Amino acid sequence: MIKNILSLLLLFIVLPEIHAQQKDKPNILWIVSEDNSPFLGCYGDTFATTPHLDKFAKQGILYKNAFATAPVCAPSRFTLVTGMYPPSMGTEHMRSTYPVPDYVKFFPRYLREAGYYTTNNAKKDYNTTDQPEAWDESSAKATYKNRKPGQPFFAVFNLNVSHESSIHTSIPTNKLKHDPEKVNLPPYHPATPEMKHDWAQYYDKIEEMDRQVGALLKELEAEGQAENTIIFYYSDNGGILGRSKRFLYESGLRVPLIIRFPEKYARLAPNTPGTETDRIVTFNDFAPTVLSLAGLEVPSHMQGKAFLGAREVKERAYAYGFRGRMDERTDLSRSVRDKKFRYIRNYLPHIIYGQYLEYLWKAPSIASWEAKFKAGRLNEDQKKFWQEKPAEELFDIENDPHNIHNLAGDPSHKEVLLKLRKANHDWLIETQDVGFIPEPLLGKIAETTPLRDYAKSGKYELNKIIETAEIASSRDKSHLKELVKRLGDKDAVVRYWAVIGTIILKNDAMPAKAKLQPLLNDPEVVVRIAAAEALLALGDTDAPVQTLNEALKSESRMARVQALNVLENIGAKAQPAFENVKALLTGDPKDTDYDVRAAKKVLETE
């Protein structure tokens, strides 16, 4: 009995303390818009009509240097929900679902275990195997209103009205609120009627997004929770017109971020309401920051760092970004941004920026831009999107916000170039970037081993692979001898990058032809496909096309996509493979698998 009495006394002592702790925890609300750069009045955009967010900025802290890690939703959302950098996890490629190690949890789970009510309304799209246990509710009806009395909440509301799809169907000009003739186009866009119309329609959608933000804020006040809630507003990536979403420029990676702190939690704010900060923050930092604001420990595996709360750390020097496969098109680039410059390293520079993407081409503006290029009616800045990439790009953000003047070859910026080049290289090594493993091989590894575990296993020859990718992408023919030597390397990934180097060098790689031909029979399909591409460029046809034809029967969808990308580029020479290309079409017009999309494009040359 004495034992029971002591237990009851302890309960009476502890329960009020737990209740007080719960009561003192802030609610945290995320309002996430889709696919928009800082096209808001509070960010200085005079064409924008965004009164609710402009008012919200006066009540909160506006971040001038906030960046997505990827210029597209799914990989960016992986970063947001895990605090991990996708190229280190194998989750960089668009709409891939490669598994992650068991210790990588969606961060709302930690909040839920700490007593928070966690809700998501409604988009997830986290680019890996789902973890539904992270949420108390996740649906189009999910709301913090269903929590227990006094229970703190973490709630996410995703607003999709500004999503890329919002310009796929044109609204009649006389029904637009924003005048197409008054749009201030970026210098890389031609002033076609379709381009001006898409921009004006997009601003209409941003205006509607602003109205929806206002409605959510009003609802929070009506629930009596505004004074208990820290509110984040941000976009999941930049966008949406051509050369923004999916690309590593400011237009694809820089996002709006405004955070409002109620008076009750003013001590957690970095400054007073209505102020701006130039602190660099990235999506990697959002998960640890929310945990920090909630008073929780930040798991040691998270690569992001808290920029607010009890676990706040020193400001980061750089924001890192990446581009992998976008839908049915292979590509690989990395980016580093400090407060003044953006550096981009293109590891597949022979691939043009403006690769055809079925989804992107649903916007009338992109097709009109391409038509102007084919007609020879673009200026130098507008043409670049349809040409091969340089190996390196460097932009002075202050003087060139649209990133059109590449300073990588400017001697006066050599010191900056070397500094950011090193920062990029060091980050690849530090994070054990597995994105340099071509995706068909990446998928094979992921069948048995999470890619993060593989990177740490000692089987991944990271330093040699990065070195090979760097010399391969440099377009420096003095490296040809070394590339030829590495065509025979025991590591398939090294062989692959050595072949890529010969593709990039074009006719300068002719001395490598004899060493490339045996690789049509390489044990790894990715090497066979790359060798076929290289030999096609050096004048061979029959054997390389047969290799690509065989690859179309591969069990790996991404190998089929890789082969289809090459076949499309050779036009009529792809004829012997057309039967297998047609076999990939299911007949269902709703089939959006990436190999189906790529196959349809190849057959346009038939």
TrEMBL record:
<keyword id="KW-0479">Metal-binding</keyword>
<dbReference type="InterPro" id="IPR011989">
    <property type="entry name" value="ARM-like"/>
</dbReference>
<protein>
    <submittedName>
        <fullName>Sulfatase-like hydrolase/transferase</fullName>
    </submittedName>
</protein>
<dbReference type="InterPro" id="IPR024607">
    <property type="entry name" value="Sulfatase_CS"/>
</dbReference>
<dbReference type="InterPro" id="IPR050738">
    <property type="entry name" value="Sulfatase"/>
</dbReference>
<dbReference type="GO" id="GO:0004065">
    <property type="term" value="F:arylsulfatase activity"/>
</dbReference>
<dbReference type="Pfam" id="PF13646">
    <property type="entry name" value="HEAT_2"/>
</dbReference>
<dbReference type="Pfam" id="PF00884">
    <property type="entry name" value="Sulfatase"/>
</dbReference>
<dbReference type="GO" id="GO:0046872">
    <property type="term" value="F:metal ion binding"/>
</dbReference>
<feature type="signal peptide">
    <location>
        <begin position="1"/>
        <end position="20"/>
    </location>
</feature>
<keyword id="KW-0106">Calcium</keyword>
<dbReference type="InterPro" id="IPR017850">
    <property type="entry name" value="Alkaline_phosphatase_core_sf"/>
</dbReference>
<keyword id="KW-0378">Hydrolase</keyword>
<comment type="similarity">
    <text>Belongs to the sulfatase family.</text>
</comment>
<feature type="domain" description="Sulfatase N-terminal">
    <location>
        <begin position="26"/>
        <end position="295"/>
    </location>
</feature>
<dbReference type="InterPro" id="IPR016024">
    <property type="entry name" value="ARM-type_fold"/>
</dbReference>
<dbReference type="InterPro" id="IPR000917">
    <property type="entry name" value="Sulfatase_N"/>
</dbReference>
<keyword id="KW-0732">Signal</keyword>
